[in-house]
C-alpha cells in the first residue's frame, strides 16, 4: 500500500518542499496586491514560465476529470503568484454542462465560484482563483479554439490567470498524470517561429485541424508538483481507503475503449501516410527529412505497445502475488495438522 503511494509520487515527481504543513501556503495579501499592481506580465508575454501544483490539488483535478468519463469537466484552481510561477494550492469543481468536445460555464457556475471563494475567505483562506482546469478525454493536453477564446477572456478581466488541461484516459494508460498548463498571447503579439512543421500531430486526426489553427496563439508552462506534511497526511488517508481498488483494477480493462480508439486512429494515420508516400512516388511534393509522418507513427505505435505491455506485466505480477494465496494457506494448515496427528 505504501509502495503504491510512493510509486505514484515518484512517477509525478511530487516533492516534499518543506516539513511544515504551511509550505508554500503562506499567503501575503499585500505582496499579491503589489504584484497585481505592477503587472509584469503586461510587458513580457512569456513572463510566467512555471506552475507548481500541490499533490492534493492534482489528485482532486485528476479524480474530477476521471469521473467525467468521455465528457469534458471544468473547475477552478486557487493559489498565488510567486515571481514567474503560479503556485496552485487547491482546486474545486464547477457545476457546468459538458459534452465530449467542450464545456459551457454559465451563470450558475459563476455564482457558485463567487460563493465558494467568499466562503473560503470567511474561513481564513485568502487565496484567489488563479486559473481554470478542464479535461480532454483521450486527445491530449492542448488548447482548442474555444479554450483559447476562454483563456483570452479570463486574461483580459482576471489576469494573472492560467489554463490547465488534463487527459484522464492517457493518465490511466500511462500511470502518470497527463497534464499541461498554458497562457495565451496578446492579440498584437506574434510569437517567433510560429509556423512550420508537417500536418501530422500526436493527437487524434479529428482534432488536428483545430490544434493546428490555434497552436501559435498560446504557450506552455513547466509543471511541477509539491506536497507539505498536511498533503502527506491527506494522501495517506486516501491510500488507506482506496488501496484495494487500486490493486484490483487494470488499465487494460478500465481503459479498453480508449485503447481501441488509439488503434483505430493509428490505422487511419498509417493510411494517410501511405497515400502521401504514393503521391511522392508519382512526383508529388517531398516531405521534410526530419520528423516525417512515418517516424511519428512509429513513436506513437511504440507508445501504445509500451502501455499495453506495462498493463499485461502488472496483471501478471498481481496474479503471481495473489492468485492461490488463500489455497496455499489452507494447504499449509492441513500439513501442520497432519504432522501434529
Q: What's the β-strand tally?
A: 10
Can you summarize the main beta sheet?
A: 7 strands, mixed, barrel
What assembly state would you assign to the polypeptide chains in this entry? single chain
Distance linking N and C termini: 39 Å
How big a fraction of the residues is strand?
15-25%
Shape: flat
Q: Helical segment tally? A: 12
Mean pLDDT, to the nearest integer, reads 76
Question: Can you write the helix and strand succession as a string?
Answer: HEHEHEEEEHEHEHEHEHHHHH
Structural class: alpha/beta
Strand-helix topology:
Layout: H1 2-11, E1 14-16, H2 29-38, E2 50-54, H3 55-67, E3 74-82, E4 85-93, E5 97-98, E6 103-104, H4 107-122, E7 128-135, H5 145-157, E8 162-166, H6 168-174, E9 179-184, H7 205-214, E10 218-227, H8 229-248, H9 251-254, H10 256-281, H11 293-322, H12 325-340
Helix pairs in contact: 10-11
Keywords:
single chain, 341 residues, alpha/beta, seven-stranded mixed beta barrel, two-stranded antiparallel ribbon, 12 helices, 10 strands, 51% helix, flat
If you had to describe this structure to a student in words, what would you say it looks like?
- By secondary structure, this protein is of the alpha/beta class.
- It is built from 12 helices and 10 strands.
- It has helices at residues 2-11, 29-38, 55-67, 107-122, 145-157, 168-174, 205-214, 229-248, 251-254, 256-281, 293-322, 325-340, and strands at residues 14-16, 50-54, 74-82, 85-93, 97-98, 103-104, 128-135, 162-166, 179-184, 218-227.
- The strands form 2 sheets. Strands 2-4-3-7-8-9-10 form a 7-stranded mixed β-barrel. It has a two-stranded antiparallel ribbon with strand order 5-6.
- Strand 7, helix 5 (145-157) and strand 8 (162-166) form a beta-alpha-beta unit.
- The two termini are 39 Å apart.
